[in-house]
Fold this protein.
Amino acid sequence: MQKRRLGRNGPEVSAIGLGCMGMSDFYAGGDEAESIATIHHALDCGVTFLDTADMYGVGENEKLVGRAIVKRRDEVFLATKFGNVRAPDGAFLGVDGSPNYVRAACDASLKRLGVETIDLYYQHRVDPKTPIEETVGAMAELVRAGKVRHLGLSEAAPATLRKACAVHPIAALQTEYSLWSREPEQEILATCRELGVGFVAYSPLGRGFLTGRFKSSADVPQEDYRRQTPRFQGENFDKNLALLDRVEAFAREKHCTLAQLALAWLLAQGEEIVPIPGTKRRKYFDENLGALKIILSADEIARIAEALPAGAAAGTRYVEQHMKALNL
């Protein structure tokens, strides 16, 4: 398994991770037995980096991951997140980065995961009500207490990341990045490189859109969260589908799937970038892992980026309310 380091002096992880969110929440078609089998298969293949969060399934995803790794903890680099608060019925209650909440959230995650230490603990969204120095200060206390090994932030602005690094080393910034979500290229990636912070790319396949499996909006199940997101709706969907035609030719040239091409392109953007494509099925995991075998030339990388340029995707990443919580 190829490895990459999270940051200048951070931990080494598999070059591709496994996002576990869809196993418990947001995407239709969950199957716990297949999800656990997928996690075990990932570990068998040398993928060590597992990503979850306390909000996924209102804690249920952490429990699932915990059950999957109970006898294989030493093989796993385990990442989870706090900060997005949800009610027992799943309703979103806002973002909380207060020190007391940080401590309570960590203890709850440790219990659900069934572990003594979290390898990478992220603040899932920045709390505008709490200075980042206070939040990271509380997270640093968890490191000193042995409950957490490394710290991370998610969807944080460059200025916030700088303030956080002044309090405690930040191993990774997790932000959406893919062929149709290129915003990190504007400033965030450069800041991470300057500060020696690793970059973890979530939704590297555009929530499945960049796999080419959705040929019409009707292909998205009724109960699936993606039906509520702008890029999967109406004219936006049709426009985005047309964009895929531009890159599918490249996939045929490389004798790979569209998903593999999208991941290979992302991996080629920098050695500090670790994508965490999510899947709950072994067959799609194997497809994603195949991206590591695809070598793109500098010319191919440029041509793919030109075919699907920054800002080309129709619609925002999230609904307006959730867009306000990004890049704070």
In short: The CA atoms of residues 162 and 291 lie 32 Å apart. The longest strand covers residues 148-154.
